[in-house]
From TrEMBL, chain A:
This is Arsenosugar biosynthesis radical SAM protein ArsS. The keyword Metal-binding applies. Keywords: Iron, Iron-sulfur, Metal-binding, S-adenosyl-L-methionine. Residues 59-196 form the Radical SAM core domain.
TrEMBL record, chain B:
Residues 23-101 form the Carboxymuconolactone decarboxylase-like domain. This is Arsenosugar biosynthesis-associated peroxidase-like protein. It comes from the Bacteria. InterPro entries: AhpD-like, AhpD_core, AlkhydPrxdase/COmuclacdeCOase, CMD-like.
Length: 351, 111
């Protein structure tokens, strides 16, 4: 369990180019495993093109109150990158004209952006009805100023999607930090109390399961069943759906894979579980990811690898949805993480 | 060729046994896949049985495979260890029950 981000530790892997180098070499350069582009070419899915844009995913900053060992953002309290009001204004201009119906706010802990609430309010005025906030839960209890977040979420009918790697304390705390499980449970109870995941309220609360180690998630429905019965029985907690998300081999999870000598086995497992049906619905086909400083990416993972969209338009200040919808999606070996088994996206399985 | 009998990387090559006997290899893998599907027992229960048997037959490949399979299915380490004990208990029981044979023989031979 790291206490600081890769960046603060000045680890080589904090550099996107170092990560890209790693993903392009070794078992992928000597032909032991096929590169992702060659794999999808086998089923005539190259180049990968966007479909209808549905989701604008905004990364409001890399600052977070937690330092999770698998974090693909390398987020943490020591990260100071935060979306400014100026960039938020540019996003609001885009929101007024976009064809996307959902605004997906992520981080770091998006709630830690000092202008988070103002932005949600303004985006709501600009016509966004479907808000997603990816909350780490513990932020709600981290400081008094966040205690009323459940009420705020309720007011704007925010769809809350929260990480909870497991329904037991030990695995959760190991991945996300000591004490995280108890605080997450308390936060879920607070969300339930204001009406989240309660019948008739329409307030949605989904959980994200991601494996706490070098293995892939299994059947999403079976996991959902286990989570629902355990959380209800042990803590009287309700939630709507469970999304099983595969850990992608980038950033801190890549660091873990390399340090624990699991990297090759993990990549083999991803490639073996490759499912062409999942390629059809990978999230980069319906999402644009916008970084804290306004750059545009095919997904949050490409953002962390600094693979900006392959389009004339690369920044929110020049946003043009028609041009962007004609781009080719940038891919690399990390993409195997989204196409393994039943597939993986920020909305769970896709195939 | 490796200088040791067991190489973890060989597990990935398991499917290659079909290359030298396609019919038998394919039949085996079809059967194997079918066995571990959801049935009267859940796939989760079968994974724990497989883990216990892996220990009893002392197959390092199988132990690696079904530890990982258990993690993927959200099986806890306590459940895994209990399954290993269930296998170990049967194995030691199988040894000990032969103690009756020893006792029978002892008695028969003794005046």
């Amino acid at each position: 369990m790291p206490l600081k981000s890769l960046k603060a530790r000045e680890n080589d892997l904090s550099s996107p180019s170092k990560q890209q180098e790693f993903l392009n070499n070794g078992i992928f350069s000597d032909g032991e495993l096929p590169r992702f582009k060659d794999k999808i070419a086998e089923t005539n899915q190259l180049p990968l093109k966007p479909k209808k844009l549905e989701i604008l995913q905004l990364n409001l900053g890399y600052m977070c109150n937690q330092v999770c060992s698998h974090c693909h953002v390398d987020a943490g309290p020591d990260r100071k990158e935060i979306m400014t009001v100026d960039t938020m204004q540019q996003c609001l201009e885009v929101i007024k004209t976009t064809g996307a119906h959902t605004l997906d706010l992520t981080g770091g802990a998006p709630e830690m952006n000092p202008n988070f609430r103002w932005f949600v309010k303004e985006a709501s005025k600009a016509g966004i009805k479907d808000f997603i906030v990816r909350s780490n839960l513990t932020i709600i209890l981290a400081n008094k100023k966040y205690h009323d977040l459940p009420e705020f979420f309720k007011k704007y009918n925010v769809h809350v999607i929260s990480s909870l790697p497991f329904y037991k304390k030990e695995k959760t705390d190991k991945q996300r930090g000591s004490g995280v499980f108890d605080k997450s449970i308390k936060a879920l109870q607070m969300l339930n109390k204001v009406g989240y995941a309660q019948e008739g309220t329409g307030l949605k609360l989904d959980l994200v399961y991601n494996p706490s180690g070098a293995f892939l998630p299994t059947n999403q429905q079976a996991m959902e069943r286990d989570f629902k019965s355990a959380l209800k029985k042990d803590f009287d907690i309700d939630f709507n759906s469970l999304f099983a998300i595969t850990n992608l081999p980038i950033s801190r999870f890549l660091e873990f894979l390399i340090a624990s000598e699991n990297y090759e086995d993990y990549m083999y497992a991803l490639v073996e579980a490759y499912n062409p049906a999942a390629v059809e619905n990978v999230m980069c086909t319906n999402t644009i990811s916008i970084s804290w400083d306004g750059w545009l990416y095919d997904c949050d993972f490409n953002q962390m690898l600094d693979l900006k969209v392959n389009s004339k338009v690369k920044h929110i200040s020049d946003y043009n949805e028609d041009l962007l919808n004609n781009r080719e999606i940038l891919i690399s070996q990390h993409c195997y993480g989204c196409t393994a088994g039943a597939g993986s996206s920020c909305q769970g399985t896709v195939a | 060729m490796a200088n040791n009998y067991y190489d973890p990387a060989d597990l990935r090559k398991f499917g290659e046994i079909t290359e030298w006997s396609e019919e038998l290899g394919s039949k085996f893998f079809d059967y194997y896949g079918k066995v571990f599907e959801e049935g009267a027992l859940t796939a989760r229960e079968k994974s724990l049985i497989a883990l216990a048997v892996s220990h009893v037959v002392k197959c390092p490949y199988c132990i690696d495979a079904y530890t990982k399979d258990g993690l993927q299915r959200g099986i806890t380490k306590e459940e895994m260890m209990e399954a290993v004990h269930a296998g170990a208990a049967i194995e030691s029981g199988a040894t000990l029950v032969h103690g009756v044979q020893m006792m029978n023989k002892y008695k028969k031979l003794s005046m």
